[in-house]
Amino acid sequence: MCGLAGFLDRGGVMGDAMAMLRAMADQIRHRGPDDDGYWWSSEARVGFAFRRLAIQDVSPLGHQPMASASGRFTMAFNGEVYNFLELRKELESLGHAFRGHSDTEIMLAAFESWGVRAATERFVGMFAFAVWDARERDLTLGRDRVGVKPLYVGLTGGHKPSTGGFKIPDGASLVFASELKALHPVPGMRFDVDRGALALYVRYSYVPTPWSIHPSIIKLPPGHLMRIRDGGATLEQYWSAKEVAERGAADPFRGSDREAADALDELLQQAVKIRMIADVPLGAFLSGGIDSSAVVAAMTAVAPGKVRTFTIGVRDPAYDEAPFAKAIARHLGTDHIEHCVEPNEALSVIPRLCRMWDEPFADSSQIPTYVVSAAARKHVTVILSGDGGDELFGGYYRYRWARSLWSQMRRMPVMARRATARLLRAVPADTANRTLTPLMRALPARFRMNTPGDRAHKLGRLMLSSSDWDLYRRLASVVPDPAELLIDGSEPMVPLTDPAWLADIDELEPRMMQADIVSYLVDDIMVKVDRASMATSLEAREPLLDHRLIEFAFRLPTNMKLRGGTTKWLLREVLYRRVPKELMERPKQGFSIPIEQWLVGPLRDWAEGLLDERRLRQDGFWRADAVRAMWKSQLSGGRMQHQLWNVLMFEAWRAESPR
Fold first, then answer.
1. Angle at 408 between CA 407 and CA 412, to 5 degrees
2. Can you tell me the distance from the alpha carbon of 511 to that of 467, in angstroms, rounded to the nearest whole number?
3. Measured at the alpha carbon of residue 445, what is the angle toward residues 442 and 450, in degrees to the nearest 5?
4. Burial of 636 (0-12, 13-18, 19+ CB in 10 A)
5. Is the pTM of this model over 0.85?
6. What are the two backbone dihedrals, phi and then psi, of residue 625, each rounded to the nearest 5 degrees?
7. Which residues sit opposite 607 in a β-bridge?
8. How many alpha carbons lie under 13 Å from residue 460 in its C-beta half-sphere?
9. 73-81/152-155 β-pairing
10. Which of 99, 137, 307, 408 is deepest in the core (most CB within 10 A)?
11. Among candidates 375, 527, 528, 374, which has minimal Cα distance to 30?
12. What is the largest CA-CA distance in the chain?
């Protein structure tokens, strides 16, 4: 894994181009501590900077930026193309010869033989790249199919790039990088806050593609190429999750359960095997859940030796999954390393989060993700994870009960639903939690619930849904009404709300899964894993997000994913071939961070400084009275509210970001 940055200096604002490229690369040194490289064409005014984490061909023959054999193409590339050995054989049959064995050299030869788009369509991997074609005099930026690797694109001078293509204004330069911080040294870059993007962040706890928190910078969407030529930038989509879902619905898998399990097992082993190719030590995250266990089980089936696995634990047995992970590791015979997280270790990460993520990001699971990445990096350079299993195989609870909930709700008259919603939200959630929680203990176990007040308020919001799809969108919103907190901010269209990104199929469950892939998976899960792992110079690979496995998953009937109240049914069936069912059949606990206690304890001064009323009013983003009311509720023993954590993460980022 590596990091790249660069520019097309049409505006002539870069000054000493090589010095500027070095300054940009220095900002992302953590992504590539092993080597750096720079390329600048004074004639074309195009430059690339690169930081290398050496994984494949760790010799100087893997150094980047790299030129093709003919000199036509020059590229900086972040990520991995896993099928490079297969492509190498094909390219050698066409007459290509290779000096080393890096996938970068294979990609350049593929561009020579097939062109950039046709070659990219052949790549199996995770990647972001910038390639200059000296013959055609165009620059192409590319991103992998599901957005595992990031790529930001911006304009100097405060100009705003359009998400559908744009002209580079006179006097402006185009810039790009793996992380926003690499753009901070660029002269003429403006880092205003985009209020529309801020509203989206408050709703989802992340800034969705294609927007960034800055109006002059966008994210290149997954599965897209951006071509810059003659001062104009155009976007081409070479792979579409929407089309994959629609094709799967039109051509469903018609085999038996056994045949489906056989096919999935084979695809999973193939995806794992090619992701285990590396010239450096490799391991896997093992949480004890279905997804990571399935990946590790497949690794043990294809690996020539012992697999290394990593998990983190906590001292509170109510939240500790480490014993389950250890039992699975013991059964599979892995070399298992368990790291017990002390409170101070996790606590110390929080003030540093904004510097790792570069733009507001409020998924608190980023904390354990960073901690386990740091622990694994002491032993390995590459890690395999189980990300993607929930979206592909129906792991989220909303897939299981959204249809049933809407079926019951729609029978009620609209006025009755609205009245019920008002009733459910009549009592403040904190008050209801304190009042009803003691009463829960008197109920049979199957009727007990945590935070009944929070659940009542959530159900009240859902009762206002106008359709099953509206119900899903409400479920996907962490904060249902950003306007309650923000002074201003109209939300622009994003993949979750734009029909151009969403599959046109009748069945609700695969529609929700496809929508999650182009929204939550890209901009929450993948951002979380990329930044947390790369902050520790660790490369994370996701076998379940192999596009061939995704395409197969969308052909599966829903009852092969959700069956009899069981989520991820088919993936479980494959896992049970290698791991006894009794080791897996238990409620998922997850790793819990006691943020509520920390905010009123060791983090209180930190939070109080960020939520200072004068500061909030001066910045002019927040309704200060609403934010202060939430903070007072927290200090008086209320439950942690997503809105409050979102505000804190924005303010922490704002304090560190350039203006």
1. 115
2. 14
3. 80
4. exposed
5. yes
6. -60, -40
7. none
8. 17
9. unpaired
10. 307
11. 374
12. 78
